[in-house]
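Handout, tutorial session.
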Amino acid sequence: MSDDPAFARLAGLFDVGLLKDARVLVAGCGSGGSQVALQLAMSGIRDFTLLDNDELEIENVIRHACGRRYLGQRKVGAVADLILDRNPAAAITELDVDLMSAPDLDDQIAASSVVVLATDNDQTRYLVNQKCVELETPFVTGRVFTRGIGGEVFAYNPGVTGCLACLEGVLERTTLRQGIREIDLVDEDVREKMYGMEIAEIKDSPGLNIDIAFITCFHTRLVLDTIARGLPERPKFLPPLEHNYFVWGNRPIPPFSKHFELQKIALKPQEGCLICGPASHE
């Protein structure tokens, strides 16, 4: 990619050519996944598989990377178009399918350097977690908390870190994420005044695009770090991250006590984990 003038000014600080063979599966092309995919494309990633089965609607455009001209289009096609606008040489596979019933999900995960897990529900997160553990494929997942008060990002590296199930077990014994329950952050009167929504709908209202952008930047950075760990040579000025789980607070709303609050841990495999622990392989 050194001959691509669009990336010429990055050459002195980041060897994008080292990333040219990385294959990235983006599972979920909503507000978070679309921004991570675009940031990765602008970092030199050019081999994408996009998986989603939704279309862009009017309420999406204030948070999604794709704007009004994509209304009514399938999200995988809209995000693909954004990537190609930044890098016409990108190779993109569009999978307009439900992740839970995707017939070749195992093959797609196994062929990927990393999975960008950007779905909005625990069922898909834990399915991808289990398959990535079984297939020894890294993944990075991110989530924005309700009202955009903050969010979390977690990277799984097979044999090095714990998996998503390990993380949930550890978090039960720490103050990280303490008090954050996406549906219960506000009482019924406040919720009605702010949103006019039922409880089941508030989870889909994660705040302003800038709130999401903080989390997608963390998400993208952990994806790049994960890819770099699998390369014979790391890109210049991209030293390895010491931690693989980050909780970021955008503003001082409980459980956060100040603006731009960061908490982080280095999650190791947990011996008793039913997904990636020794007992799971017996």
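The second record follows below. Compare its token runs with those of the first.
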Amino acid sequence: MAAFTYMGTKKSLARTIGALCETHEPGPFLDLFSGISAAGSSVAPKRQIWCNDAQVFSRTLTEALFLSNEDSPRATVIAAVVQRFGDKNLNALVRENQDQVDEELRLLWGTAHDDQIQFQAYVRDQTQQRKAELELGYSHCLFTTRYAGSYLGLVQAIQIDSIRYGADMALKAGLISSEEHRWALLAMCRSIAGISNSTGHFAQYLTPSPSNINRVLAKRKHCAWACWLEALNEMRAVGDTKWRSKNRVYHGDAIEVLENMDWSKGTPAVIYADPPYTNDQYSRYYHLFETAILYDYPLAEGKGLYRGGRFQSSFSLNRQVESSFERMISAAGKSGASLMISYPSNGLLPNSLQKIPEMMAEHFKIVLDPLVIPHKHSTLGGSKGREKEDVEECIFLAIQKPLAADSLSDLKHS
């Protein structure tokens, strides 16, 4: 399938990770922080893929990519039944919000930008005020009541809710399989990513202003349904059915998953860790995807309308980052696998170029010099400061089982 947008340096790093894996003996690749699976996709299908992430969205994506029984969904069938059921929800929500829908469509292609700016604030206020009423009357109005006028336009939010309604009803009626329902939800996430009024992630939406209103309007004009159809038609699993049947997907805190792993049931050849490197909790960058998958009507808090109870990574906490690295490296050392860690030189862990190899040396037989790669890291759309900053991305590699002499030489000189 076409990939979700990789954040930061993921795409270029993934190619390096894939090349380094080729120097190792055959065996599974365990990705502890799989996210949208940039690393796993770079290795597959040359190796079996074991994925883990604390986010339900990531688990759903990696299950689709690496565990699906079918190579791709029946896009035409899914689209037809989802639309048939979804139109009921869409028509009802449009009638319920008819005046606002008409006004949004009138302003969207107009030139009165001041009116459009005011209207977005009005929609946010109105849907918030009517949230309890709408949620009492409709089973599928989550995006309408929480994100209309912020990340999405009102019509777009109604369309997203109706796609979800159609997919849920089609599954309930037995017209699509659970796998196809999963693909439909992932296509919905792709649609949200394409139309969202944000900066490439969901830490916050762009508040309409005279300086950005053209950008906001351009996003608002996208049809959520058309974007969903396009994404659904591009959905593909990785590899073939036989290869996918031997993959694994875990869901939990990376350290706890690693510490509780039963190595008697198999071990990976390579464990790859790409932990968070700032004190920003990454769950806020994907919270709309998480809500789209769970569809659980969470509290929407703060300027970014974040989910309540989001996962908090210990790698993003100053007081816990060093002990988190120590626990992760110790648990990986017991597996017999090689451990590969990508982490910038200016991450939250101080003096990482020295500390990480020292930790690795306590639990692994061979620790190679870090591979240092100059990069420009995105500042993730922050409103202040530079959009990108120069950093050194480092790849740390520790080996437990001796590799062939030529492979080891290749690694040392790569």
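Points raised in discussion: DSSP finds 18 helices and ten strands in the chain.
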